[in-house]
């Protein structure tokens, strides 16, 4: 499939890309969402994690042409990257991006793993692990560590009150 929006590298003349948290109760219009990540927990409370070129990270990626919702994108990415199917999926929050001339959003979802399928390494996802939130926090290297730790705590509270 193809990404719904092209995300070529920005020319050097473009401004610096910033990501700004939006209010928790704001769910962006799906048409303005460029990517979706999902913090997926097993029943034992472990997080589905893959080793990618950018480091250890949660499943997630660009909205593809044909995706119809945040939940559908989260389910597709979890299956493609971590080879897990998802049960209950919940919206966690979003970051507004200034990458394009109009505002776009990166969304984070939380979910419960329903089924673990056989995993075969690929060049993009070399390893799949199920880590405790503490283990994940110690190896996460794909972005803002504090922001991800806060998101994992928020996701945990949804499923393990």
TrEMBL record:
Boundaries of every Nudix hydrolase domain copy: 31-153
Domain of life: Bacteria
Entries under InterPro entries matching the protein: NUDIX_hydrolase-like_dom_sf, NUDIX_hydrolase_dom
Descriptive protein name: NUDIX domain-containing protein
């Amino acid at each position: 499939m193809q990404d719904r929006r092209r995300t070529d590298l920005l020319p050097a003349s473009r401004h610096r890309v910033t990501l700004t948290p939006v209010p928790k109760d704001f769910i962006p219009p799906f048409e303005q969402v460029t990517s979706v990540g999902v913090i997926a927990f097993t029943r034992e409370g472990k997080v589905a994690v893959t080793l990618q070129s950018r480091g250890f990270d949660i499943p997630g990626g660009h909205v593809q042409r044909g995706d119809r919702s945040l939940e559908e994108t989260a389910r597709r990415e979890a299956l493609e990257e971590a080879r897990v199917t998802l049960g209950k999926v919940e919206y966690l929050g979003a970051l507004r991006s200034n990458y394009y001339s109009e505002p776009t959003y990166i969304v984070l979802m939380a979910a419960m793993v329903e089924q673990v399928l056989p995993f075969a390494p690929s060049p993009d996802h070399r390893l799949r692990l199920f880590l405790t939130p503490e283990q994940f926090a110690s190896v996460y290297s794909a972005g803002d560590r504090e922001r991800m730790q806060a998101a994992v705590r928020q996701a945990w509270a949804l499923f393990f009150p």
